[in-house]
Amino acid sequence: MLPGFGLSFGFTLAWLTLIVLIPLATIFLKAGGMGWAQVVEVGFSERALAAYQLSFGTAAMAGLVNAVFGLVVAWVLVRYSFPGKQVVSALVDLPFALPTAVAGIALTALYAPQGWIGQYLEPLGIKVAFTWVGITIALVFIGLPFVVRSVEPVLADLGREVEEAAATLGATRWQTFRHVIFPAIGPALLTGFALAFARGVGEYGSVIFISGNMPGRTEIAPLLIVTQLEQYAYAGATAIAVVMMLASFAVLLLINLVQAASRRRMGA
Fold it and tell me: What is the annotated signal peptide range for this record (predicted)?
């Protein structure tokens, strides 16, 4: 039904060039116009490095949390039938449809010092809102669907028969999960982590309300770019965007290489 490889591949390259490569190339051209020495000076300033560390660190932590709990949620949705299952499944997708600013306002109302949950944490010396902890919670909220929807179809295709066969051979539940289930869902789980991580690195709306936006402490990199734009420092915003883009691409490329290696081991 589809045309041959040459035509399909040409269309693929043309479409990616139009939608992805040309917009990204303009960022490098803009940065190159200010001189690469100035790009390094602005893109690797103390304030920018703190923002990178916060953005990538919280995105990685949120991705790991979602990898664990997203797997549990996907397992429950696939393996069990219970009243309200469709409602739970719809709630998983809610962060996709909910405006991120609404999520940020709701989380701030919950975890602020006078919030519904924060008022009980404050006397214990636990501060969530306006810290990196609050940022991580916001990124967990918006990243959960990526892991669940990546793992869910793989678990559904795996079936219970594989677990039953392992049990008849004397495997314990842990051995079944470690040697049978996890190798099968590993690439999908890594894909979900990569998607949640990528979304978290560039997230803006749900974070700015709960982060506090203090430079050097709770200022994320996307907010720093917006701040530069509001100050008409377009060159500085471009420099930070270039560093963010290169770092994100390197991390995602590494994850894709790990996925490919995992699939080759499974195929062997």
Answer: none
Query: Would residue 26 count as lying in a domain?
Result: no
Number of domains in the chain: 1
Q: Is residue 28, in this structure, part of any structural domain at all?
A: no
Contact 103, 133 (CB under 8 A): no
Question: pLDDT confidence of 1, banded at 50, 70, 90?
Answer: low
Tokens describing residue 110: 């919950």
Q: Count of CB atoms within 10 A of residue 44's CB?
A: 13
pLDDT, tens digit (0-9, with 9 covering 90-100), for 229-241: 888 888 888 888 8
- What pTM does this model have? 0.86
Longest dimension (CA), the chain: 68
Q: 98 φ, ψ to 5°?
A: -75, 130
CA-based nearest residue to 207, from 92, 102, 96, 70:
102
Interval 27-43 mean pLDDT: 81
- What's 139's domain CATH number? 1.10.3720.10
Tokens coding 177: 């999960």
Does residue 107 form part of some domain?
yes
Question: Above 80 in pLDDT, residue 267?
Answer: no
Ranges of H-type helices in the chain? 5-16, 22-33, 36-43, 46-79, 85-97, 100-111, 118-121, 132-158, 160-168, 173-176, 182-202, 205-211, 221-230, 234-267
For 149-184, the three-class secondary structure string (H helix, E strand, C coil) is HHHHHHHHHHCHHHHHHHHHCCCCHHHHHHHHHHHH
Q: How does the average pLDDT of the chain come out, rounded? A: 87
Residue 13 forms part of a structural domain:
no
Q: What is the pLDDT of residues 157-199, one digit of tens each?
A: 887 788 788 888 888 888 888 888 888 888 889 889 999 998 9
